[in-house]
Amino acid sequence: MSLHTTQKLKLHHPETFKFDSIPDSHAWLDLHEHPSVESIGPDTIPVIDLNDPMLIEKIGKACEEWGVFIISNHGIEPEVLNRLCSQMHRLFALPEEVKLKVAKAEGTDAGYGGGAISHLFSKFSWSEGFSIVGSPVDHAQKLWPDNYSSFCEVIEEYNKATKSLGCRLIHAILLSLGFSEEELYQIPIGGSSKIKTVMNLNSYPACSNPDQVLGFPPHTDSACVTIVYQNGSGLQVLRRKDDIAPTRWVIVPAVPNTFVVNIGDLMHVLSNGRFHNVVHRVTISKTNRLSCAYFIGPQDDVKLGPLSELAGWEQSPLYRPVKWPGLLKIRSKLNDKALQAIKIDSSSRGEGNRISFEFYALQA
Ligand SMILES: C=C1C[C@]23C[C@H]1CC[C@H]2[C@@]12CCC[C@@](C)(C(=O)O1)[C@H]2[C@@H]3C(=O)O
Ligand SMILES: O=C(O)CCC(=O)C(=O)O
Ligand SMILES: [Fe+2]
């Protein structure tokens, strides 16, 4: 791979994952000093059974307090997940030059490469990703000209099942905000025909010095919700300082037959700041790990803002409405400061206005 390609995609050098010592480009300093990681502590990420009669209340509470929860009884067959895993193995085991045939092109979200905000971090991630937007057929044909249907079939199947699971979750989340069943359909993401989904397949190779690297640095997801399937642990969420302890990383356990659900920036905006867009990162271990992150947000032409008027809340809106692609553009410049750029904040005029200006310039 040429240096140019490597830098543009913020991808590893093909030999990196075989090194015994970690190259400077991937080694983070003081990674585990602050905040600390809670291995056994007072924190347990809520586990929510989708058949629980108290589902709405439990989901609302988890979205507010944690911004992440684990779901069981989701109805997706383990057999589909096993097939998804074997196709992910098959994809990432391809030679580097084959995977690069479907490298993300400038300005597109779909294809092989690093994350959309990877260029904002000082170090490379110990991971490879493949993003799917819409049909995977074109890319799959390039990867396996004679044998692409087994990949496409499981992707389509998983997509269909996870999309309907996502709609169920979004409904429960909106109901927890106080909307009625009838009102749901007036909301820009309240129905399967209104949402857009992006599937991100991730591979985190085994590492001999896992404490020096990260599979993905700390970030929030931009979408409304993300549904994560993981075949082993590695994901950690940042728990805010509270009465129990200071800010700390909490390990998200890998519970068989469950998914992890994260709240993203757009759900934080939609709920007018009530739901927590949780910061998370991915750590690496001595064994290979696979995950599939399924991002659910509004369609590209839909502006999403706080739903305060609809719900008749007393609080005034904290954010200006934004389209998903617009937010991605701001994030690719401002990273974790992106939401400040759309904040309606009368109290901090100086800084706020400067960032808002940048926001409008980017939107133009
Ligand atoms: C629809 C999406 C969601 C994206 C951007 C675009 C395609 C790739 C997604 C990710 C995947 C990896 C983490 C993330 C933070 C990243 O860097 O790229 C995600 C990002 C986001 O959540 O904004
Ligand atoms: O691999 C994981 O567990 C999560 C990956 C992630 O955070 C992402 O793709 O946004
Ligand atoms: Fe993420």
Automatic annotation (TrEMBL):
Residue ranges annotated for the Fe2OG dioxygenase domain, each copy included: 194-298
Cofactors (names): L-ascorbate
Stored PROSITE patterns: FE2OG_OXY
Pfam families: 2OG-FeII_Oxy (PF03171), DIOX_N (PF14226)
Recorded GO MF terms: metal ion binding; oxidoreductase activity
Record's keyword terms, sorted: Iron, Metal-binding, Oxidoreductase
InterPro entries noted in UniProt: DIOX_N, IPNS-like_FE2OG_OXY, IPNS-like_sf, Iron_ascorbate_oxido_reductase, Oxoglu/Fe-dep_dioxygenase_dom
Gene3D superfamilies (UniProt xref): B-lactam Antibiotic, Isopenicillin N Synthase, Chain
Family, similarity comment: Belongs to the iron/ascorbate-dependent oxidoreductase family.
Name of the featured protein: Gibberellin 3-oxidase
